[in-house]
Amino acid sequence: MNVVDILVAIVVVTILVTIILAVVTYVAYKLRLSREPTPQDDDPDALRYFVLFDPPTGGAGDRTALDRLDQDVADMEGHAAEA
Amino acid sequence: MSQGRHSIWSSLGVVFALVGVTVGFVVWALLAGPDIQRVMVRMVVVSLVIFLFLLFLRYFALLWFSYLGHAERNVLGVREIKELPPISILVPAYNEGLVLERALTSLMQLEYPEYEVLVIDDGSTDDTLEIATGWEGQRGPGHFRVITKPNGGKASALNAGIAHSLHPLILCMDADSSLEPRALLTAARHFSDPAVGAVAGNVKVENRGRILTRLQALEYIEGLNMPRRAQGFIAAVNIVPGPVGLFRREALEEIGGYDTDTFAEDADLTLKIMEVGWRVEYEDQSIAWTEAPETWRDLTQQRYRWTRGILQAIRKRKGIYLRPFPDFPLWISTIQLGFEAIVWPVMNVFAHLFFAIVAILFGAGELIVYWMILLTLLDLVAALVTVSMEEESLALVPMALIYRFVFILFLDVVKMFATMEELFRLDMGWGKLERLENA
Q1: Which residue of A has its CA nearest to B11?
Q2: Is the pTM for the entire model greater than 0.90?
Q3: For a tag on chain B, would you pick the N or C end, based on fewer CB atoms within 10 A?
């Protein structure tokens, strides 16, 4: 294999590899772009996947779930003692 | 300009089309008889000659006019101006907290009697506004001010800056760039000619730690500044670069500031200024240092946006191509912009692909190697001349060895895809580059 053949191989491989790498990089860039949030995703008024629970105020509504659980446990213990 | 969800499928369709055409060509060539194969080898020879002719023509035209511009300056000297008008410097910033401090520090050291610095925070979500606010007040000859607005893009930020600025000359720059101390002084002299509406500065790459950024440093000198210097000789620079451009307020007000309908607001604005008859010059001593992308992916993103932006600017004024007169410099400048953005990249990519395939299949490799050696020598000479003109580091010259066959070919593939997407008007977004703070 003479020098010219080696140079031909280098040139051809360089051209093909560069073009393939450029295409791959372009596709990677487009993939990343397609995953970026659009302005619609950032909109706070847009439809959400869930609605935050807004607890009712006043009366029994002021109690937290833990308070209610404690109360239930106490009631059950009271019933058990009576029995 | 459309901004919606970016469809990966339409982009992939463009890729598949390119691959399909290439594979189809290879299969057809393999099945074709010896007569067709001989014709193809002849086509390669003809293409090589045409390619070489075009390249030589482009290089020599640019080098010659660039040399004339350089010689004019050296022989006639720089223009003198009796009184230096005060300048407003606009720094639009969107999430530039990492690099803003460096830009503002450079503005504090400018050699100019009177100027104001206006930082326009374009609704940043990082600490940009806090950093900018910390700079408010008088610092040397410069008075620093900050305005903030909801996010609307660079063009809208610059328009807000123009509206709030006070002085007759307005310098627009990027928040990731820094100016040399004499950048204002050297550019302002051009305005002693009342016909000059804008002056393009000289942008250089600051971060040169990697081969990719060194290649870009050479590209800025050889591929961007050399044409700009040549265009400057006929006062028809077609892009006043974003990192450093000085404008006459009167010109900006006449054209109504920046349009927000392209992604290359600098190219669009420059063409608008020329369209109403102002001269646009180039000043190679008005230097701005900028941070170049450090990864191939970021570079792809940047050039994709530039190409589509330039095409959008061209699309807005297609009629110019049919009107070489009365404004011949504007016509030739726009022709060059279109050629470099659309024609050349597509031609370059397909020619290289064609040469490689024919070399593999039919053995015309030797001819192609000699052709490439010749082109590389041409690139080396051009690099040597332009690097010397700018008194830059000669260490950049050897980069010319891989400049055309790796770097430019890579960029041309990206430009070609961007051109196809713009042709089909696929959606695109800004895609802000990641700041690295290591320039």
Answers
A1: A30
A2: no
A3: N
